[in-house]
Amino acid sequence: MSSAPPPVQVSNPTGDLAPATAADLDERLALSLRLIDAVYDRDDRLVQHLVLEEHAECWVQDAQGWTALHAAAHTGSVDHIKLLLRKGNAVWSIPDNLGCTAGDIAFSMNNTDAYEELLAEGIRSEMLRAVLEAAHSSSGESDAASDAADDADMTALDASRPDVEAGASAASDSTTAAGAVAQLSTASDNATFLASRLTFTHDSRGQPIALDAEGNGVMMGWESGIMHQTARRMCEPAWGDRRDKSWAELHSEEEGDREKLRVMNVGFGLGIIDTYLQEYHPTQHLVIEPHPDVLAFARENGWYDKPGVRFYEGTWKDYLKALEAGDEEYVGWDGVYFDTYSEHYADLHAFFQTLPDLLSTSPNARFSFFHGLGATSRLLYDVYTSVSEMHLREIGLATDWSEVDVAGEGVGRWEATGASSAGAPGAGAAGARDKRTEGEGEKKYWREEMVGRYRLPLCRLEF
User: How far apart are CA 307 and CA 37, in angstroms?
Assistant: First the structure.
């Protein structure tokens, strides 16, 4: 982004607008585009005039999708960034045509102070939004009203899976200007996802994948490196010696003085992390999974027959209700992992609140989750790394972060979710084979060149 934004032609609006309205709209648009140029040219006097006196719209985008905030991030002007955010109506998280936020522009230009200012704004805004969502949720308003409010949110930040955060189907879930609700997406509406069919197959690199009805990756083989490191960090320090013994041997020893190991995984997918957790032969291994196709896949692959493994066939919210009603026995879990699909950050945040009750009192008890929050943008990823850590700290959990170089572990690049040819093995429980040819329909959602390495969270209760 070393050159100035290209010149933009302001076209006259057409349609049913009255001439006066069209002229006014044209004038307002021209002012906003002029502001972008003024910020890019570092014309402080004109920038202040357009923002403070003309009240130019700071969120308007030019032909390449840049707002005035993108221009300020490019120049590195912290003063302009503050002015646009505090005195104007700039939006910190708007992406340009390439998916770059203003913060991503600042990061790419090594404009550190500008990036830190935008990062602070993002953290402040998202923490405030979480407070407002909590107040909204507790106010007793109807589910319909709550859903409408969620639709108004920026779905690029909401979901706890990277493909959804990329806005894979965000637009399809929004309420239109006329008030009609568009068709819901499997990628961002949990009820729609649970009612859809899944396909279990392999991608063009031979890695196993589970695809939803829209072709979005529910779980992919490239996640293996992440899951391996997560299971190792959760279990190895305190329970590493269990790997050398069988479940039967350990079960016998646990009748004596050996400490038990109880693990819970919320969201089975392909069972990748469950496979690594099984290396430690946990005393109890609870899997919470609601999707019937995933449950059928688990049955076909022998998971229901493994010693100590039990499936709760429902959502984690169903499980908590059953726990509260006494239909499920309370167990203090030594390891808890959370990796659901088509849920939003608000759901993950709500799950955080349950951890003091779910985790055991062992000092070795650990919690982790799949951190794909905002994984299409360096700024969004940094914002949600900080926001999630702050929310965990509020309930008494300390978080340590480590990086996983997924591509370096030899599992292939991890930007694509496309399937291989129709005859690929492992179609599995859904009973359907992917009919696309190799590489067709592949979509990128993790921009590793921008986001960097995966950040693995490991959380523990502070006593």
Answer: 66
Give yes or no for a contact between 386 and 457, defined as CB atoms under 8 angstroms apart: no
For the record, the structure tokens of 314 come out as 């429902």
For every residue of 103-158, DSSP letters joined together read: HHHHHHTT-HHHHHHHHHHHHHHHHHHHHHHHHHHHTT--HHHHHHHHHHS-HHHH
Dist CA 370 CA 231 (whole Å):
12
CA angle 193, 199, 200 (to 5 degrees): 125
Q: Which residues contact 120 (CB under 8 A, 6 or more apart)?
A: none
Q: Distance between terminal CA atoms of the chain?
A: 48
Tens digit of each residue's pLDDT (9 = 90 or more) over 315-358: 999 999 999 999 999 999 999 999 999 999 999 999 999 999 99
d(CA 110, CA 74): 9
From CA 375, how far away is CA 345, in angstroms rounded? Answer: 13
Residue 24's pLDDT is 82
| E-strand stretches of 339-422 | 366-369, 397-404
Domains assigned to the chain: 19-121 (1.25.40.20), 199-461 (3.40.50.150)
**pTM of the entire structure?**
0.83
Per the DSSP assignment, residues forming a β-bridge with 461 are: 397
CB within 8 Å of 458: residues ≥ 6 apart? 230, 233, 234, 366, 367, 368, 399, 400, 401, 402
